[in-house]
Amino acid sequence: MANHVLLDNISHKDLKVITTRGANWGDNISCATVFPSEFAKVQANQPIVFRKHPQTGQFEALALFGFENGENLLLNEQGELQLSYLPLSMQRQPFLIGQQTQYNNGIPEQSLVVHIDLDSPRISTHDGEAIFLEHGGNSEYLNHIAQVLNALHQEHQTINLFFERLLSVNLLEAFSIEYADKNGEKVTVSGFYTINQQVLNGLTAEQLKQLQQQGDLQAIYMVLASMEHIPHLLNKKWAQQ
Amino acid sequence: MFAAAPIKECQASSIADLKVFLAEQTEPLVIRGLCVDWPQVMAAKQSSKNALDYLLGLANNAPVRSFSSQAIHQGRYFYNADFSGLNFSQHADNLVSVLQKLARSITQTDSDSLYMGSTAVEYCAPGFSVKNPLTVTDYNCLTSLWVGNHSQIAAHYDNADNLACVAAGKRTFTLLPTDQVNNLYVGPLEFTPAGQAVSLVDFNNPDFNRFPRFKEAIAKTQSATLGPGDAIYIPALWWHQVSATSPFNVLVNYWWRQAPEYLANPFDAMLHSMLAIKDLPNEHKQKWQQLFNHYVFADDVDLASHVAEPAQGILADIDELTARKIRQLLLQKLNR
Question: What is the DSSP string of B247-289?
């Protein structure tokens, strides 16, 4: 499925990347990973939910687009996806961050390098954004991707601590979403977590102050506000059935 | 090996102030007995094993890079036969494990070559520099450790001035002035065995059919063999081949650049000049040579005083601010 290689300006000199979003380009996805620094922008349009990553068991935050695998209820009739804010984890596609060891007077140092998924449907030689300039320099687009990858790398370093802080004051609670399918059968989508509002309301001034100083308090309220989008998303599902 | 002239030498006891003395040197010089009072050197004078044990007492487990090369290559760290890669392998290692492997190799004959080159000494053997001290310059100085059994590093140059001290074993240094570049048949600039371009000539077994001009280089060659406690000053940009010949060898070296940190790397400038000028028509190249001579190389040209001071920019003596501006400008211009 995926064919990740180190990006270089010789093997990949003529490659372009289609940045249009839509089902044709792999956006028939039911969720995207998001990070606390993005919550304010994401909550304006999608629910933010937490879940444990199926492989690592670590908590992660997701912007929810649908309720079944591959279901994106935000795609329009032409299959296009128009989001007012595109999460970093989607902006980065089809690039990934890689690490490379370099030695500085014998001392190993990790440096970040850009990998590309050559099997991504976004890769093209005629459409989209050029990765490299005519003579091999980095395009503005590649500079932007480098910033996105760097931001994601920073977020990955700190996301576990964010959830540890929420867990330390018991702010996470499990929840599930229920709806009736087109045959009237009840469907339960479980495994989600969100902020426990009761616990939040019962926190001491000192606990709230700590959350506020860590920058978590705003993220917490953004998650709570974003829950209002779940009924909207369910309505879209109803409308499609 | 051909006969080379001896490198000029002196006794450490004749030097009053090493810093002042080194700052005055412009040619290679062997300083005998400079580090004889180092405990590392005193251990080495007893036996290889004592030398190894002394260093093992300071070594830590910090990740380092070690190299090994099969016995058939006789310690010559080089390209493979068709230049598609190198003739040695690299390992994620640490100094303790390197020394343990070397301890086993001491007792073997015909062993593979094992080598840890140029690693910040305080990073892999904390306290070494305090116990084995030497002050060589007031410039920012990189102190590095080199440990291994037999090895032969092909002739190359470094950007920095270098004082190399043999702390255990024996090392032979073979030096040539920078201007011998054309007689040394230097290999690729971008793909190198250890960061610096190397002469493709095997000094121990020169192939004069492939490298006929090397005969002319021989007349300019100087050589010296150093034992524990001896040191050699290698000025920046002098070609040097270094062979370690004992079962256990330790070198400590000091690199310093007589230039502020904010200046750019001259090798990068040369590479960019090759990209920009090397393949131009000859008449253009000659004119660029005149401009380079004027702006870069001439020491007696007044570049700036006819320009109003605030507008002099890089024409004036370069300070940190000017360096920052020019670096940013070059980054933008290079990206095309």
Answer: SSEEEEEEEE-SS-TTSPPHHHHHHHHIIIIITS-HHHHHHHH
> Chain B residues contacting A, CB < 8 Å?
62-65, 92, 116-120, 123-124, 142, 144-145, 334-336
For chain A, give the DSSP string.
Answer: ---EEE--TTTTTT-EE----BGGGT---SEEEE-GGGHHHHTTTS-EEEEE-TTT--EEEEEE--SSTT--TTB-TTSBB--SS--HHHHTTTEEEEEEEEEETTEEEEEEEEEEETT-TTEESSSSEESB-TTSPBPHHHHHHHHHHHHHHHHHHHHHHHHHHHHHTT-EEEEEEEEE-TTS-EEEEEEEEEE-HHHHHT--HHHHHHHHHHTHHHHHHHHHHHTTHHHHHHHHHHHH-
Distance (Å) of CA A131 to CA A128, A153, A211: 9, 20, 41
Q: State the smallest CA–CA distance between residue A138 and chain B in angstroms.
A: 6
ipTM: 0.81
- pLDDT of B219 reads 94
Q: List, for residues B228-259, the tens digit of each pLDDT value.
A: 999 999 999 999 999 999 999 999 999 999 88
pLDDT at B280: 98
**pLDDT score of A238 more than 90:** no
What is the nearest CA distance from B130 to chain A, expressed in angstroms?
19
- Check pLDDT > 90 for residue A63: yes
pLDDT at residue B39, rounded to an integer: 98
Stated pTM of the model: 0.87
Q: What is the mean pLDDT of chain B?
A: 96
Interface residue A54 vs chain B (CB under 8 A)? no
Mean residue pLDDT of chain A comes to 94
Q: How far is A135 from chain B (nearest CA, A)?
A: 6
Residues of B in contact with A106 (CB under 8 A): 64-65, 116-120, 123-124, 144-145
Q: Do A106 and B142 touch (CB under 8 A)?
A: no
The single residue listed with the structure tokens 């030097």 is B15
Q: Which of A106, A107, A133 sits opposite B336 (nearest CB)?
A: A133
Nearest-neighbour CA in chain A from B115: distance (Å):
12
Instruction: Point out the residue among B120, B124, B336 whose CB comes nearest to the CB of A134.
Output: B336
pLDDT over 90 (residue A1)? no
> Rounded to whole angstroms, how far apart are CA atoms A168 and B280?
67
Interface residue of A9, A13, A105 to substitute, partner B, most B CBs within 10 Å: A105
Is A110 within 8 Å of chain B by CB? no
Q: Which residue has the tokens 């030398």?
A: B51
Could you tell me which residues come within 8 angstroms of residue B294 by beta carbon, excluding any fewer than 6 positions away? B301, B303
Q: Which residues contact B130 (CB under 8 A, 6 or more apart)?
A: none
Structural domains in chain B, CATH included, are 5-256 (2.60.120.10), 266-334 (no CATH)
Hey, is the C-beta of A139 within 8 angstroms of any chain B C-beta?
A: no
The predicted structure's pLDDT at residue B233: 98
Pairing of strands B231-234, A16-17: unpaired
Which one of B124, B144, B335 has the shortest CB-CB distance to A138? Answer: B335
Under-50 pLDDT residues of chain B:
none
